[in-house]
Design a protein that fits this description.
The chain is an alpha+beta fold. The protein folds into 3 domains: 80 residues, Glutaredoxin (3-Layer(aba) Sandwich), CATH 3.40.30.10; 112 residues, Glutathione S-transferase Yfyf (Class Pi), Chain A, domain 2, CATH 1.20.1050; 54 residues, no CATH class. The chain is built from 11 helices and 9 strands. The chain has a 4-stranded mixed β-sheet with strand order 2-1-3-4, covered by helices on one side. The chain has a 3-stranded antiparallel β-sheet with strand order 7-8-9, covered by helices on one side. Helix 1 runs parallel beside helix 3 and helix 1 crosses helix 7.
Amino acid sequence: MGYETGYELCIGDRAYSSWSLRGWLLFEAFGIGCALTRTRLYEPGFAQTLAAFAPARSVPALRLPEGAVISDSLAIAEELASRHPEAGLWPKDPKARAVARHLAAEMHASFTALRSHCAMNLRVCYTDCAPPAAVLADLARLEELWAWARAECGSVGPWLCGDYSVADVFFAPVAARIAGHALPVSPAAQAYVAAHFAHLPFRRWRAMAQVDGADQPAYRRDWPTRDWALPEVLPSAPLATGPSVNAACPYSGLPVTHFLRVNGQVLGFCNAFCRDKTGADPEAWPQAMALLEP
């Protein structure tokens, strides 16, 4: 997180809440800081938490520094882009910016079959979800949009409109769905999915999703599963005791109480969540990796 401390972002379960992922990436991927309030979907506390973020009725919800609350990730994207033009949420080039806005708007309003059949679940990877015709039609439209955007913007890197932008933020949960449900897409689309899984902000969110609360039964599907293929994760193991190479948690600066072995060395953290999110994908966390001796 970066320089701004006046925002408060309310998010749902990291493993399942695709719109929360978008809201969080709008801050994390562009270096804008915010305080986080977390709530759990489908639990009584959800409505109670959102009551403090009126008039929002869903996550993400953002309290602005002035105290007003806005919800809906597209509204949040536009407001942050207006307040932080230097952060580069939208492309600078007018044509690329127009293409990126089209992509975000269509993602925001469409692809209901894909969303319904392939709910985002960053804790499980399926071998086959038997996608119906409507899901295959959504995938074909995605391929068409992505190819069109690259052609219009002349993008030769991993992202759709040049540098990483709001358009890519909005398709991050789609990448999770494609990879997690073994959906049939072209090699070009697979490469775009792989770019998201290699993107450090996305990797950090996915690592936290592995250890952020219990499974939600509403997202259970009785489909055959397999191990995730993207990305390969550095092995680690929690330890009951230290000593560790560090005396202070790399995230909070507080004294260490929990320990993790990574690459033959022991790192210390201030609580179980800091330890476990690091263990889920150590290389997603530069603060922790910087503590390791070469």
